[in-house]
TrEMBL record:
Keywords: Chaperone, Cytoplasm, Nickel insertion. UreD, UreF and UreG form a complex that acts as a GTP-hydrolysis-dependent molecular chaperone, activating the urease apoprotein by helping to assemble the nickel containing metallocenter of UreC. The UreE protein probably delivers the nickel. GO terms for molecular function: nickel cation binding. The gene is ureD. Belongs to the UreD family. It comes from the Bacteria. InterPro entries: UreD. It holds the Pfam family UreD. It comes from Streptomyces telluris. Required for maturation of urease via the functional incorporation of the urease nickel metallocenter. This is Urease accessory protein UreD. It is found in: Cytoplasm. GO terms for cellular component: cytoplasm.
Length: 264
């Protein structure tokens, strides 16, 4: 599979440069070991108790980040046959920094043959005055399984959002599977119009990749007035939704995931 790229430098050299790395491997006894669980700055990684083959990893925020000018990188490598469930203890809040420079947050994920990753963090909140460029790049082996959730809340209660650009790129077996970039907030034309958010302040997607979908593709359906399940050109499907708030968004995404898991 494609090698993971190096972390970027801070946008203007004035912010925090921090990274974290997770490596999971099958332990040969039906479980998953974590030989590398390392993080600095705002990243504190913890292993949680979990039954069966799955290893549970939780990211604990050790400090406020990302702030303007920060460059953060999180890498997860799930080797052949390993099973990992990733979560976070709280939402990530993108805040303004001292210089007004944008922050960057890059997530690199690689999932090997017969491996499975459930990536289920809490939402990203784009706070007033902040600017964040978030990039997620995922490389999957042909027999890998993935559940990936991404939720964005535009502004805290009673405030307008900052500027947020988020790109998700997924490759399976070295070939493109999914590539989407969305931008919101000040300076982005039409982001709050009827063709994009229509006044909603919570947006998200839940991507499921499973080789079983090749024989039994997911059927498209409407989940809510602003939420749909759509099959992709591959053994995958995505739930896309906008909602008035984070609670309603989470409910819709979980409903879509449950429907796909029942159909397998």
């Amino acid at each position: 599979m494609t090698a993971l790229a190096a972390a970027p430098a801070p946008p203007d050299g004035a912010g925090l440069l921090a990274s974290a790395r997770i490596v999971a491997v099958a332990d040969g006894r039906g479980g998953t070991a974590l030989p590398v669980l390392d993080g600095g700055g705002p990243f504190a990684l913890r292993r949680l108790r979990s039954p069966g083959a799955e290893a549970r990893v939780c990211l604990v925020g050790a400090m406020s980040a990302p702030l303007g000018g920060d460059a953060l990188t999180l890498t997860a490598e799930v080797e052949d046959g390993a099973v990992v469930h990733f979560s976070t203890t709280a939402a990530t809040i993108a805040l303004p920094g001292r210089t007004g420079a944008p922050a960057t947050y890059v997530v690199y994920i690689r999932v090997g043959e017969g491996a499975e990753l459930r990536w289920l963090p809490e939402p990203l909140i784009s706070a007033r005055g902040g600017e964040l460029r978030m990039t997620t790049r995922i490389e999957l082996a042909p027999t890998a399984r993935l559940v990936f959730r991404e939720e964005q809340i535009l502004g805290r209660a009673g405030e307008p959002p900052g500027r947020l650009t988020a790109r998700l790129t997924v490759r399976r077996g070295g070939r493109p599977l999914y590539d989407q970039e969305l931008s919101y907030g000040p300076g982005v034309p039409g982001w709050d119009g009827g063709a994009v958010l229509g006044g909603h302040r919570a947006v998200g997607q839940l991507l499921v990749v499973d080789p079983a979908f090749a024989a039994a593709p997911v059927a498209p359906r409407v989940l809510a007035p602003a939420a749909v399940v759509a099959p992709l050109a591959g053994p995958a499907a995505v739930v896309s939704a906008v909602a008035p708030d984070g609670l309603q968004l989470r409910t819709v995404l979980e409903t879509g995931l449950l429907g796909m898991e029942i159909s397998r």
